[in-house]
């Protein structure tokens, strides 16, 4: 029995090692180890052996069994690897070829300008604040002196957020960054110098200078004795910070219910000499809304307008990027076109 087991070990390991496919390996495994396999059949004779020989034969039989199982595992791994290599080879895959060159992304033009303006305003003692994109109607409008029946609401075609049961009523996608004025004033009080860049949303007819989603940056200064000269100084610093001294601008009266007086700052259209589709023939592109914070807004936010005054502005970051980089259509900013974006990669 011992000799027969040794013979079987040699023959079996040879047969398993010679398997050229996973299916022939399986067949050899069954022939050796299966219920009717050679090892099982051989071991049926153990009962006829003298009792003192049985443990030795049992031990040997286990060793043979283990040797077969190990061989099956190693041959199976080798066959699988060979199969993968053959498949890759037939697919024309060459793992030694160098990879395609990596293309690095870069900062989005709006992001570049945002970072520059953050640096500029931080150097002037401002801090950077953030506000939610889904905003309370009360902050987006009411606290800014725009009650429900105010005609100014119509100029902001608002995207309302449907009220789910049990949720806070009166939610909208913020139409401007101005609600951050309210949030920071309430939270920090006066004196205050803050900027708040971010995305805003309007349900409006799109054209070269109007998108439904765009970026603004709010600015707010509240202190004793703040007036129009300080506001103009900040506006000039911002324009010069982004464009140097080259951009021609003008400032004119503008109406926003949360400032008094209010202004609008326009830049001369860089895309034409005598009017084009971007400036709609006017030669000017509106960049900033600004003014002195309305006493009612200060009061509603818990600041005493007899002590403090302030200025606020809302600048269109997307439009700054248009003018700085010569982008003729604001809709390209968030259009996601790789050929557009790759022009700004580093
Ligand atoms: C406002 O949003 C006011 N909150 C600005 C403000 C803040 C005034 C503080 C006074 C004090 P307006 O709707 O004009 O105002 O937008 C401000 C700027 O955002 C515009 O000057 C323009 O540069 C940009 N802008 C407005 N609408 C769009 C749009 N649809 N697409 C791209 N940029 C826009």
Description of the structure:
This protein is 40% helix and 18% strand. It has 346 residues and is an alpha+beta fold. It has two domains: 2-90; 109-344, Bira Bifunctional Protein, Domain 2 (BirA Bifunctional Protein, domain 2, 2-Layer Sandwich). The strands form two sheets. It has a seven-stranded mixed sheet, sandwiched between helices. The longest helix is centred in the N-terminal third of the chain and has 37 residues, at 54-90. It is elongated, with a radius of gyration of 39 Å. It binds adenosine-5'-[phenylalaninyl-phosphate]. Adenosine-5'-[phenylalaninyl-phosphate] (FA5) binds next to strand 6, strand 8, strand 9, strand 10 and helix 11. Adenosine-5'-[phenylalaninyl-phosphate] (FA5) binds at residues 176, 178, 202, 204, 210-211, 214, 216, 256, 259, 262, 286-291, 312-314, 316, 318-319, 330.
Secondary structure elements and pairings:
Blueprint: H1 2-17, H2 22-33, H3 38-43, H4 54-90, H5 109-123, E1 127-128, E2 134-136, H6 137-140, H7 152-155, E3 160-161, E4 171-173, H8 179-188, E5 192-201, E6 213-223, H9 228-243, E7 249-253, E8 259-268, E9 284-293, H10 295-300, E10 309-316, H11 317-325, H12 338-341
Parallel strand pairs: 1-5
Antiparallel strand pairs: 2-4, 3-4, 5-6, 6-10, 7-8, 8-9, 9-10
Adenosine-5'-[phenylalaninyl-phosphate] is lined by residues 176, 178, 202, 204, 210-211, 214, 216, 256, 259, 262, 286-291, 312-314, 316, 318-319, 330.
